[in-house]
Each structure stands twice: as C-alpha cells, then as structure tokens.
Write a structure and sequence with these properties.
42% of the residues lie in helices and 14% in strands. It has 424 residues and is α/β, with parallel strands linked by helices. The protein has a 7-stranded parallel β-sheet, sandwiched between helices. A 6-stranded parallel β-sheet has the order 10-9-8-13-14-15, sandwiched between helices. A two-stranded parallel sheet has the order 11-12.
Length: 424
C-alpha cells in the first residue's frame, strides 16, 4: 500500500520526528511505499519522488505563529478574526493535502501528532477536513495532548477552547488512534469514549549501538577526561523535567573524584537559561566543578553519525558510559531509557509518573529506581555497587537488552502496525 505521512517537521531530534522515522522504516520493511508531506525538512535528504514540502505546515510559518500568539499568548478581545484566519489557512493546507493524496494514490494517511497537540491549529483542522470529506483510512500517531501541557494550550476565549476540543484529538470512524503510553489510552477512553492502540517508542535492536571502537575512544580526550575516570552520562536535553539536579546530587553522594557526570544535551529549550543557571549554581555549591561536564558542543544528538571532526554521536556517548542517569519527573514515554537498554548500559531512573511503571518498569527491567527524585542511602549504595562491580554491570546490561528486544524492538512496532492496519 501507499502510506502518506503528514508531519509539521521531520529530521529533527524531537521525539515525534525520531519515532516517525522509525515508523517509516518499518512500513518500508513491511513492503509499503511511504510518501512524506511536511512543513520543514530538518537534516533530511529530500527524495523528490517521495517527499513534498508545504511551508504552510511548518510550526515556524508566520501564519501558524500568528495563530498561536493570538490564541494563547496575546489574544485580541474578539476571536472572530482568528477563527476566520484558522479556517481560511486550513483551506490552503487542505488543498495541498488533497492534491498530494490524489497524485500519490495514498491508501492510508498517517497524521504525526498534528491531530493530537494543537501546536498548528490550521494544519490540525485541514487534516480533519480531509479525513471527514474523503473517508480515507487514517492513523493518528498521538504523542501528547493539550491537557498534558498544563495551561499552554488553554485560551482565554471559550470559542478557541471549543474549537480545540472538537478538533484535537481527531476522532472519526475512519481513524485509528495510536498513543504512546497506557495513561494516554485511558485518557482518550475517559474523555471521549475513544478506543486506541498503545504503540511504545522503539529502537532497532538488530543494529549495533553504543559499541566501543577506535573512533569514539577519543571522546574522553575531547572532554579533558582521564583514563581512570568513571563516566556517568545524562543523555538528555537540559530542561527542568529531566531532573538533572538529582544526577548532580548523586555525584556528590558517591564521594569519588573519579566519578564524572557528562551532560550531553544543550540548554536551547531552557527558556532564559533559568534551569541551566540553577544547575551551575548547584555544581558550584557542591564543589563539583571538576566532576560535571557539559558536552553538547561535541555530541550530536541526532545520533546518526559520529567521529566527524570533533563531533560524536549518541552511540559514541553510550559507548563511553559506565551507567546512565535518567531522573526525569515526567516523560511521554522515555526514549533515553530504551536507548540505554539498547546500548547495554545500566540505568538509574526516577519513577516518573504516570508512565514509567505501567509501560516500562513493569516489564521487569533491572534498574535502581528512586521515587520523587529522592536519593536514599540504600539507592545510592545500590547504584555504587553497579558502578564499581564490572561483572554485575555487564550482567544487568545483558539482561535488560534481552527484555528490550522483546518489548521495544522494530519487531514489536511491526506487530503493532499490522494490528492497526487490520482494524481497517
């Protein structure tokens, strides 16, 4: 079949873009032909025969940004003009979608979060119009919803909130909703009586990842680290919900100058660098300036290529890790957890609610888990045992890898996609 994927942005390092790439790969493995329509191709080699750029679908298109500003941040007294603009602009996107579907003979439309989160009001409405008018079989890959973002998508105008409630998430008889965790499935049923399929985030367990080689061994030198240093990696962006302060506190509690915490992500998504500055202040207070390293300048979070000049991949980072820290307070799923499992690296995790235990922890992974970001003496002792016992470290990593392959591999994704297609 011809699968058509509609997405605001592809090729980036955000969870939506990364998981979309995996779906595309598995669809192709299943023998389907995949066509892509997007507002932005970021670090993506465009295939003119398969990929179509529609700038109006970009989150950074002026009209989309104007809608967001007037709906949520600086609304006018009267929302009539805004509603007219959303509808009018959706017609432009709808026309492009209809032409693309007809030209490429699309059998199934996949809406990648565009029908779940109201980050692009006109695109969400356009997809709804296409789906209701054509009756095309549609999968909505729903990564997160408006109610999960606090007040971010709540407008002062009742009319805008009513529009969002009717449009996001998309709920039609020819639509199958795919969500990424059990809590989202329960929410859809409670709020709308809408059934859905839980499709976890996955990794390719048939590819080597996090394996040491002659190239990635240079990462230590690049970061000014000694051969004897023991490296804990925090492989996330610097945003508050990642709980990086807990990882820093762990370094202090271990009382070993050889322990180094490597934070791979940048603070680009930390508005005003407020959290980043707080972390630096904590590092200074605990006198850990020599033990905490910010490494975004040498690590490419896209993770595809490494060893180019002074740039290393996520795989290179994991290859140098003794263990990883993942003390998040909230995640839609937890890609870094599955990455760590794939890389055969033990992981220390916070029981981030409501996702971790129902969707990951309950599978039986061997980790050191804390609650509410609190490092107890027992948890630190258990972490230290894994850090300093190479045999135990390896045994845990191998055990978790086998579980990861069972629950979070491309084979799992293929089974889920076949289940969804059969629903049609």
């Amino acid at each position: 079949m011809n699968i058509g994927v509609a997405i605001g942005r592809i090729g980036g390092v955000d969870g939506v873009a990364l998981e979309t790439e995996k779906w595309i790969e598995v669809f192709k493995r299943m023998g389907h032909t995949v066509f892509l329509i997007s507002g932005e191709f970021q670090n993506w080699k465009i295939n003119p025969e398969r990929d179509t750029c529609v700038k109006q679908m970009s989150f950074f298109d002026p009209s989309c940004m104007w809608d967001q500003e007037n709906a949520f941040f600086e609304p006018d007294d009267d929302p009539v003009d805004l509603l007219y603009h959303i509808d009018n602009y959706s017609n432009i996107i709808e026309a492009r979608l209809l032409g693309w579907i007809e030209q490429n003979k699309i059998d199934i439309l996949l809406s990648e979060n565009a029908s779940a989160l109201p980050a692009h009001l006109s695109m969400g409405l356009a997809i709804k119009k296409v789906v209701t008018e054509t009756g095309i079989r549609t999968i909505t890959h729903d990564h997160d919803f408006a109610w999960e973002r606090g007040q971010r998508y709540v407008s002062p105008h009742k009319e805008i909130n009513d529009f969002i409630a009717k449009t996001f998430p998309l709920r039609e008889t020819n639509v199958v909703n795919a969500v990424i965790n059990t809590n989202a499935k329960e929410d859809l049923m409670k709020k709308f009586g809408q059934d859905s399929v839980v499709v976890p985030n996955v990794m390719d367990f048939d590819k080597s990842f996090g394996v040491k080689n002659t190239t990635n061994g240079g990462l230590r030198n690049e970061l000014g680290l000694d051969k004897e240093d023991i490296l804990l990696f925090q492989i996330t962006r610097i945003v508050r919900r990642k709980g990086i302060e807990t990882a820093i506190q762990l370094v202090e509690k271990l009382q070993d100058k050889r322990i180094k915490l490597i934070i791979t992500g940048s603070n680009a998504d930390d508005e005003g660098s407020i959290y980043y500055n707080e972390l630096n202040e904590l590092i200074k207070q605990l006198k850990l300036e020599d033990q905490v390293v910010f490494a975004a300048h040498v690590i490419n979070h896209k993770g595809e290529l490494g060893g180019l000049g002074n740039t290393y991949s996520l795989s290179d980072a994991y290859a140098n890790a003794n263990s990883t820290t993942y003390f998040s307070t909230y995640e839609g799923f937890g890609n870094a957890f599955v990455e760590s499992v794939l890389a055969k690296t033990p992981i220390f995790v916070n029981n981030y609610k409501p996702v971790y235990m129902p969707d990951i922890g309950s599978k039986g992974f061997k980790t050191v888990m804390i609650n509410d970001g609190i490092l107890t003496d027992e948890s630190v002792k258990n972490m230290a045992e894994i850090i300093y016992n190479p045999q135990l470290n390896k045994e845990i990593a191998e055990y978790n890898w086998q579980l990861g392959k069972k629950y979070f591999s491309y084979d799992t994704l293929q089974e889920k996609l076949e289940e969804i297609i059969n629903k049609f």
